[in-house]
Give the backbone structure.
Amino acid sequence: MTTTQLAGLLPELEVIRADFPILSRSVADGRPLVYLDSANTSQKPQVVIDTMVDHLERHNANVARAMHALGAESTEAFEGARDKVAAFINAPSRNEVVFTKNATEALNLLARTLDLGPGDNVVITEMEHHSNIVSWQLACERSGAELRWFGLTDDGRLDLSNADALIDEHTKVVAFTWVSNMLGTINPVTDLVARAKAFGAHSVIDASQAAPQLPVDVAATGCDFLVFTGHKVVGPTGVGVLWGREELLNGLPPFHGGGEMIETVTMARSTYASAPHRFEAGTPPIVEAVGLGAAVDYLSHIGMDAIHRHEQAITAYALEGLRTVPGLTVLGPLDATERGGAISFEIDGVHPHDVAQVLDSRGVAIRAGHHCAKPAHARFGVQSSTRMSSYLYTTPAEVDALVEGLEYTRSYFKLG
Amino acid sequence: MSQQLDALYQEIILDHYKNPHHKGLREPFEAEVHHVNPTCGDEVTLRVHVSDGTVADVSYDSVGCSISQASASVLTDLVIGKPVEEAMSIHETFLTLMQGKGAVEPDEEVLEDAIAFAGVAKFPARVKCALLSWMAWKDATARSLEDSHG
Ligand SMILES: Cc1ncc(COP(=O)(O)O)c(C=O)c1O
């Protein structure tokens, strides 16, 4: 199958690929790079790189506190990035967009500041990334609240059969991923939000894997909080986003104390700024936020609907290709329309580490291990898996290179 | 490309991977440890039985890649039956080889089959795999000695 025959691919895929300088690199003795690890981190388009370089070369200064021309420019760029992110997720107010270090910090912020006590419970799921498990385990240990979780069905979906028993009047938080980074499953977010709301619990959506590949509309989900990380949406590392309803954010105690998050400080006590600055203590990741602003603008310009269609087309093509590899089992839903662009799989007789090594020698970059989702692996009785993950720049030819690489891996390990 | 791979996946390594020696958990033992490679999740549970200053048995149960599995197998071949001191010195030699970034010439007299791991030292991401069971063995042996002294 050639690129032109596959319905749903982004038009002008070659033009998009040319936006990402790293894609023209070669690796492994001159082979073209086949980058299939975008769920781990995405590559960056030239416009993001240029925006960050331009900021550092021409506008660099601290924000909010520098009383000079550069300070004003830097503040404008930083706050402008907040507007861009707010537009990207359809936030009702720019004040609801808090810049954090990454998704992990955003989740920890919530787990630290949401009020929990003995008798309360927090409900998560078995398919969470460790950041959405451990932060709540710590919160429950600290507060005496109980941690509960949704299990998974054999085909990698949330098992909602006992939802009525899990979420009850003592539930304070329901936190779940929109798209699984391991199984690829797309979860029924509006249903889960409604279940939380019915009991007055706060809903927290981890959109780390959703924001890169689906249109995210916080208002439409009805959720209370949503987090994602900059480096997976073609932005830089070092910046993430917490979105929360303004009145809820302003009702939370501060997370970190320091500069910029205060109203006034005396030696005895302080009063705090309102969101978003309430949660942005200290000098924020300025150039990273500016880069993230350029990144979400880039994605919006291409269109999240179009990117989603592209991901689904590539995912369907990849599922088809992987099916031809003997001894290969895909973990998670097999229907591309119900999943995101991360596909984890096992190959009988070859450990994921060894698969990754052989593929790497052919220039194909994938991930091997537990992908920070050990419980989800344990659920399926596997200790680790191999994961390919595509993005808006992935071509069917790259999927072919993966499938050929897997055939070669089998022959290398003499699996016939 | 295949040459580089072949340097990593020596026949000896693949043989030990397919047919690991001394695998399984056995009695008696003085110490049992559980080591994990947090990056990839590879795990080993390893027991050591020391008797009269000699490594009488090393038994293990493990899940992991070819490198970590083969390395556990080779380890047991090398240390079982050796005086603890000599086994520790073999451990030292293997560690030096693995941390040598490919620049250390392995001594076949001491390392026997373990010289096959010389190629692994050139792949920084895989050094941890090769060392998993060795580190577990050192830990367990130190503990079993502590127990017998205390
Ligand atoms: C679903 C999910 N949640 C959270 C994270 C954490 O992102 P970060 O490491 O940038 O905080 C990731 C990234 O690996 C993820 O895939």
User: Anything to note?
Assistant: Strands of chain B lie at 31-36, 43-51, 54-63.
